[in-house]
Amino acid sequence: MHVPHDAGDAALLRPAGNGTRKQFLPGRPALCPREARQGGAAPPAAIAELPDIQRILLGMAGKIEAARGLNVAAAAALDGAALHADQSVRDDRLALAQWLLPIVKDGAARLAFDVSSDAMQVLGGAGYRREWPNERHLRDSRVFSIYEGTGGIQAIDLLERQLKREKGRGLRIFLDLARREYCAGQVFDAELQHILATLERISGMLAQCDGRTSAAAATPFLGSLRSPRMPGLPRGYCGWRETTRPAVR
Question: Which of 29, 45, 187, 188 matches a 20 to 30 Å C-alpha distance to 147?
Answer without folding.
Answer: 29
